[in-house]
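Protocol step 4 of 5: obtain the predicted structure for the target chain.
Materials: sequence only (see below). No template structures provided, no constraints applied. The aim of this step is simply to have a reference model before the mutagenesis design in step 5. Sequence pasted as it appears in the construct record:
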Amino acid sequence: MMRQLFMACLVLITVQLQAQISTTYPKENPQLVEYALNNQSNGVAASRSKVMLDLPFFDDFSYSTPHPDASHWEDRQVFINDTWATNLVSVGVATFDGLDATGSPYGGGAGSSDTLTSIGLNLGGLATAYISYYIQPRGLGDLPEGDDKNLILEFLSSDGEWVEMERHTAGDILRDSVLQFDFIGPIAINESQFLYDGFQFRFRNISSRDGASDLWHLDYVRVEETPTNQVIDDLAFTKLPPSIFKNYTSVPLTHFNDPELVEAELRSELPIELYNHSNQTLTTEESLLRLRYVSPSNEVRAFIPPTLFDNPNFAAKRQDVGQSIRRDYLDRLERQRLDPAENFQAKMIYEMTPAPQVDQAGILRNDSVVSFTTIDDYYAYDDGSAESLITIGGLGGSVAMEFINYKSDSLRGFQIQIPRFISGAANSQITLKVWLEDLSTEPVAELTVSPFFVDEIRDTLQAFTTYALKDEITGEATPIALPVGKFFVGWTQGNCNINFSNCVPIGLDRNTTDAGEKVFLFQNNEGFWRNVGTDPILAHLKGALMLRPILGTETPLDSELATSINELKLDEVMQLFPNPATDIVNVQVFNGDYEKYQLQIHNVLGQLIDAAPLQAQLDISSYPLGTYLLQITNLETRETGFQKLIKQ
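Step 4 output (structure tokens):
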């Protein structure tokens, strides 16, 4: 089953603020665990290419699969992601930690951990080759402390021996003032023992081997015949674009076209982060921003794309580019809803065409990124993925997050992500609460809940659990009238062990650090509220709580009930084949009513990568190798089913 994304990256801060609050890194990566099980159960463990490569060799890890590209690397231990490092060289990094290829800790004490080994390179007949790369210790995670937590580069000699060439420690890293990565190289490969066809190099790290700790991030690996340096004709996206909203990542559909919300929340300028790796001005005159609207009724609308950049010329330095999105362009999106009661997704595709640019597949790959904005029935600050978790221990306390409501409505329930990294959490409880206007007031609603892990019952994405506001005795819905203005949603944790073993953890999205200004912490031993965004003591808690208030006229279905009555059994209504597949997947709906179904495609990290009406064939030829989760919804019954699909 697809578990919630937990690329958590913080070292365990064992006792903070008088043992009242903790943030931790997980002891496993559930997505990698599931990925390994999928491949094993389907008999298609990732095949490693045996074909040797000619130079140039390049990989910037700007792809969506969690493991390295099999056409360039032999092994799978490092974690490919775009959230753990800071100020990326280009979208995507390879992260070295203490978890193996299955997402489980190596164990056995400190020692060699992840390994990233290139496939064979044809260096025979060359006088010299050169390798370069960028590295960053820690990022948003645990610092590899001490001289023994190294990242090591090794070359394979012609007699089969691995020879150490570089050993990096965190204290030796000289970070670029903008990128916060250290450029290493060019390192000459000029000894005869390395200049043969089939030469390989590898990176490996030394860690405590007990989880996502002692992090090193690797990016932009190049091997060429001429000396490699930081100058190359490449204009790269370095970060996924943000939501179309200034603060929220999602707002309720019925609030989406409210004039006050549009004025306060809809971006008129979209910040896009790029890095120009060249020493000359690059132009992007033909670059486009494509917008596609997809509704659950299978309505898909593609809008005429505007030019992506107002100024297509980029000087040779990193820039935060302010992209002016025409307000009427997004207003047009608002007016396209077919039914004001149903949700939709806005898929925005950012495509650059820099010139001049190196004509190399890996370099061209970082010229396109995709972002989704889902408009449904909730407010959210998070991006759907948690890099850490927050837990209140000791004497207990409360955590709350502030929201601004732009339209009178009813609060009906909560979506919340409760990761399963604390063994006793399932037997504990928290009380979800709602405050109006000010946290000094009495809560207007309280609901005591125990953790319910949806992914133990069936496949889900991100494992958000839904709890409806209801009378705890009668079970009747008890919605709260929500006026225009400020309100707070949070939870209270009672006394639990000093080691947090019976506390309930909640997901924390650390990528949205600005949301920390909306988060408040109350510790029972202190007796007052602290603001996470402004209190330096709480800097490690900056981010968005994985807690979403659900609004509207209908009571949401509790996850525990939804797992039994709202599941679409795909094998009874359709067949997907072949699986595994390489390019085309055939979809046979037994009654032929394809128009009844909506398809969403997610990668193994739970990230949405496409959405469209269900059709007789699915083209996956452009997808990277790996496992995907197909989410198929019956538009009439609202039943949803899941099917794993492997691209090989």
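Step 4 remarks: The chain has four domains: 46-229, 237-375, 388-564, 566-647. The first helix runs from residue 30 to 41.
Proceed to step 5.
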